[in-house]
Known about the structure:
The complex is a heterodimer. Chain A is an alpha/beta fold.
Amino acid sequence: MTQVIEVRNLHKTYGGVTAVDNVSFTVEEGEIFSIIGPNGAGKTTVIESLIGLRQPDSGSVSVLGLDPQTEARKLGNRIGTQLQEAALPERMKVWEALDLYASFYEKSVPWAPLLEKWGLAEKRNSQFGSLSGGQKQRLFISLALLNDPQIVFLDELTTGLDPQARRATWDLIRAVREQGKTVVLITHFMDEVEALADRVAVIDHGRVIALDTPDNLIANLNRETQVLFSVPNGFQAARLENVGGITAVNQYGQQITVSGNGPLLANVAAALAQHNIAPADLRVQQANLEDVFLALTGQTIRN
Amino acid sequence: MKFFLKLTYMELKLQLREPVALFFSLAFPVMVMVLFGFIFGNEAEERLGGYGQVDLSVPGYIGMVVGTIGMLSIPTTLANYRDLGILRRLRATPLGSSPVLWSQVAAQVVMTAAGIILLFIAGLAIFDLRIPNGNLAIVPAALLSAFSFFAVGFVLAGVMPSARTAQAVGMAIFYPMLFLSGAAMPRYIMPDFVQQIAGLLPLTHVVILMEDLWLKGTWNLTSVVVIAIMLILGLVISRFTFRWE
């Protein structure tokens, strides 16, 4: 695997406030690399340093072997970006935006097929201001792909989208990766990271506090699995306490929650079958990335 | 070069789709000309050196177009582009910053020219406008004046925290200046002390520069210097105050 991004000991402060503190990571070619973190954790500053919009105070950044500060134009021709809080003029039409932005690059792909592919063909003569949130995001992705970039940076792409549009956008991101492009995805949606990311860096207070695959991060949490179900009246949950792997059994009326490790579901189901009990609404709750995130960053609400 | 032309052309199209901006920069000066023209007529008068009221007002209306675009259009447009993140999106391309700013200048120069040409068309069509001496020299003079007011517009866009305040402050500075400078009504009808105050306003010097070229074909050097100083100050200040986000 080739490294397409290398960040070493990146530092950035704004007026005495440290936004990015000693951040290091690498991104491999062709992966979906995600950066998650609470609001104000420094995610956007990291991305902005990668695409040359911010000058780091210290540390080194190399993207496609280029220095984003001194080789901005060269790099700009080889990456695509969708930035948070960026927009187009309200009255600019969809086709005009693509036609205009295509002229900014040394090489660009024809924009008409892009419109087709991202479901905007019918909107080509619509003004930016009249597009829905999902359509705007698809237009931004199209703009980010105009120069057939090697790396695509997506900053909070799905914020403000309804659930349908979010899921549709995930498919689009997978489609981008299938074209062989590397994707760097900033988000604060955990389900998005679990669904898409090959590796994820958790950033908090400007520092990388964890970096691994989503599965490994969850596994490292060592959180117990829980099996939840309802049973007919009269069943005593205490009868399950000898089942292998169980650490706790709680009963609230007909609702039973069994916590433990190992093949918990199979063990519980077998024990219930032994007692001739058919459990209703049986489900398993496992740790997810959100638990990892809360465990790492704490549960206090921040601005 | 292609990207610069596209950017400028796009900016012009966007300006033309903005009815309010269009009204103030293109229609309003013509409306003022037509209104005063119907009130005072454009008969040649001895006391006016053989010219009519409209003939003499054209230099002022040119100042009105230049001032409107420099102090209202440019600050509002740029601050709006900054507030909405439009400049931020443009910066994330290999384009660099200067084409973005220069295309704004180029588009607004075209708008200024269009505003002035509309004045001439309306003047000729409705009032049989008489065109006195030195008429071609008003082109470089109008350009100098435009650049100078555009630079002030860039300063306003950079210093003001939002598009709304940029627009409000632009209006608060521009409208008193408009009426005192002789751009909208002749200075000679004003009391002496008002004329003295007016003499300190940059827009007055645009009007004086235009009037002298229009009527006598001479360059008023004081006015040229005042306008040039404002241009240089505007460029220097905007260099340090302009913000992309």
